[in-house]
Amino acid sequence: MKMTYEGIGKRAAPAVVGVLLLGLAACGAGDRSTGPGTYTADPKQSLGQHVPGQHMIVAGHPLAAEAGREMLRRGGSAVDAAIAAQMVLNLVEPQSSGIGGGGFLVHFDAASRDVTSYDGRETAPASASPGMFLNAEGEPRKFFDAVVGGLSVGVPGLLRMLEVAHREHGKLPWADLFQPAIQLSENGFPVSPRLHEMVAKDRYLKTFPAPAAYFYTDSGAPVAVGQMLVNQPFADTLKIVARQGAGGFYRGPIAEDIANTVRTAPRNPAGMTTADIAGYRAVERPPVCAFYREWRVCGMPPPSSGGITVLQILGLLERFVRAETAPDTVMGVHRIAEASRLAFADRNTYLADPDFVPVPAAGLLDREYLAERSRAIVDRAMSGPVLPGTPDGVRADAFRWTPDGHTRISTTHLSVIDGDGNAVSMTSSIENAFGSRLMVRGFLLNNELTDFSFVPERDGVAVANRAEPGKRPRSSMAPTLVLDKQGQVVMAVGSPGGSRIIGYVAKSLIGVLDGGMDIQQASDLPNVLNRNGPTELEIDTPAADLQPQLEALGHKVVLRRMTSGLNGIAVTAEGLRGGADPRREGVALGD
Q1: Continuous H helices in 188-293
Q2: Is residue 140 a part of any domain in this protein?
Q3: What is the tens place of the pLDDT at every residue in 459-499?
Q4: Residue 427's closest CA among 44, 149, 187, 97?
């Protein structure tokens, strides 16, 4: 299923270790007293790069970006580079993503100008039920009471999704794409500051033998920055997948070990079976696309809420002239926050797995509907939370609002444009940092099922995003592509960050498309957003200085640390321009 727009708008380890050390130096990791995740607009720490027209990848870790660039240099496609980079990300950034989780990929084919999206979201096993996250008293469990152990694990989808995308768009042999990650797993990679920090502050990894042995010393200390970490079990797993394809993961000993680990988990054992794993299917879906001014913006459809909600924010802002939406001004932040408030009201009510729930996607993106909703954006803040709208053909009383109860701090994003002009925007995740904390054959299992609503119904009406067997939990991942009037890709972007991903991506799009910024400047911008509650401003940034003026406009303001990880590429007259969020460890690499 595709949407076409015609006339529309010998060992590599020493080398890649050198790239990592250069990348960490560029991040200021050695002297950043506040640690990874802190906002900085220091141009000396900008990790963006201009490339005079060949190929580029921007990924969340220097070693992953290097693996992707190696495939591009060998004539590989954007999908080839994305697969190689993702396998390395699983190894060097295990808290964020991997083959034990899932993801979404949006692809642009330069020859046909087709935009296609691939759904690799995890699915609930047959044992799942709407009330699976309620306690004995029928109340929602506390988040980490549900996360840690087997109950939260969904059937992984990442490898099936990548296999489908490679079958359609790959150029290099499948097995070749796994070699960088295999070599790094066997030879070792230096632990980054962010990985060390995440291990040091996690309370649950030590409670399970496999991750405790891998991430900590015999004395219980977290792996040190710069320590060479070897993961032979992961190398062995990747060798099976490289040789047998994704089938080697979904059937046979690996699948048996996954199911057994979930069923026998010492905490929250659950009912996943090998039949659940063998039955997983990735889904190719039509992307959600809409015009914003002179550009066509395309994103991921449900079960991700990211694409529709980002497009709603843009659509709600379109009636304002560009200067009125500047994300570095009081009124610009006010309008962006109000548009986000309205969009999240719809998101929290209507968006879920479309194979289980009738999602009114067309109605939510209807220009007249958005224009009418936009009239609520005035010079004072709405008193939130606001109610959802009623798009055509939808009875609002047939749906019940359900917010996200948490924000994950893991997930990763990569963007690629290859030498032929094909593009990939891919966001992947295991949900919370280190997922369920269960480790199998060198990789961590996700906790994505806690993205379902813990409350299965309200006022006798089923919540759209409740758990059900075979269902995919709602996501906020928002891999995005922007096309010009000729139907050529001009931008690829996305971010980690839980439900805040939507605000991060919207901010970057507004910065580039409305503000005329380059992609690095847009990534550097302070984060501002509203999820139909308080207006959130990134602490210790120029945005935080706007708090008194926004409060005078009626906003309830909360200052937070918001560790986005925007990784994007823009096509400019001078060539490709990459932007890597300085809050994390990503880099842009190209030739």
Answers
A1: 193-201, 209-215, 232-244, 247-250, 253-263, 274-278
A2: yes
A3: 888 999 999 999 999 999 999 999 999 999 999 999 999 99
A4: 97
Q: Are the C-beta atoms of residues 271 and 254 closer than 8 Å to each other?
A: no
Nearest to 422 by CA among 178, 116, 121: 116
- What pTM does this model have? 0.92
What CATH number should be reported for the domain holding residue 377? 1.10.246.130
Question: Residue 190 corresponds to which tokens in the numbers above?
Answer: 């230096």
**Domain assignment of residue 293, yes or no:** no
The Cα–Cα gap between 519 and 522 comes to 5
Q: What is the arrangement of strands in the sheet containing 288-292, beginning at the earlier edge strand?
A: 49-51, 575-580, 567-572, 489-493, 480-483, 295-299, 288-292
Determine the Cα angle at 259 with ends 256 and 261, to 5°: 105
Alpha-carbon distance values, 14 to 106, 236, 320, 521, 577 (Å): 33, 21, 52, 32, 27
Q: Is residue 35 over pLDDT 80?
A: no
Are both 272 and 323 inside the same structural domain?
A: no
Q: Which domain holds residue 333?
A: 302-394
| One domain for residues 421 and 451 | yes
Contact 491, 570 (CB under 8 A): yes
The residues annotated with a catalytic role in the active site are 411
CA distance 223 to 453: 35
Last residue of a domain, one of 344, 365, 394: 394
pLDDT digits (tens, 9 = 90+) for 364-419: 999 999 999 999 999 999 987 999 999 986 765 666 656 554 555 679 999 999 99
| Domain end marker among 394, 421, 452 | 394
